[in-house]
Design a protein that fits this description.
229 residues, mainly alpha, three-stranded parallel β-sheet
Amino acid sequence: MAYVGFPTDITAQFRALVVYVEHRFYGESILYGLTLEKALSDLNTRGYFSSAQALADYAEILVYLKQKLNAKHSPIIVIGGSYGGMLASWFRLKYPHVALTALASSAPILDFPDIIRRTPLKSSSELQDYLIPLYANAAQYNDPFTRRVKVMCDAIDGASPKNDILGKIFAGVVTLIRNSTCYVNRPFSPSQTDLGWDWQDIELVLHRFASNIIFSNGLQDPWSRSGYV
C-alpha cells in the first residue's frame, strides 16, 4: 500500500469509500486453501488464474458492496497502476455499467508481442540483462522524495576519474542496492508475482470501445512506450 498515493488522501473530501480487492492467486486469495506453488502445479486449479476472472471477481464484489451499503446511486471509479492500471482500463471496457470511470496509471496495455515488437540485442551479457530491469525499476519508482534516478546518475557521474566504465556502473548500482555483500547474481527468493506472472493469462481481447478512461503516463516512465501518453 506504500505506493497507493492520492486516493487515500482525498477520501474524506469526497466522502468516499476506498476498497482494495486482492487479485485471485495472490496474497491469501488462492483457491482451495492451497499454496501458490501447489495451485500452479495443478492444471485444473491453474485454469482459474486469469485476468478475465479477476475482473469478474471485482465486479461481483463491487456490486455486492453497493447493495450491502445501500449505495445504489454512488458512482465507482476504478484506479490502478502498472498491471493494476491494465485491469482498471479493462474493467471499464468489460463492465461499463459498474464503473463510471477508470484511472490507469503507467498501464502498459499495448505491451503484447503482436502489438509492440522489441528489437533484440545483437549481443547480450549477464551484466546487461541484470542492469536493464534494475534501471527500469529505478525509473518506475522514481518518486520526488527519494529521486532514485538522480541519485544513481549522480553516483555514476561523480565516480572517481580513475574508475573505468564498469566502476562507474557499479557506483550507480550501489545506490540502488545498499548494504549487500553481492550485487550481481544475488540470492533470489521468488515472490508470488515472480511465481505466478508467467502462468497468468493476461491477454484480454475486448472488441469494443469505451470512454471515461484516463491514462496517466509520463515520458520518464519505462512503460510509457507500451501505453497511451
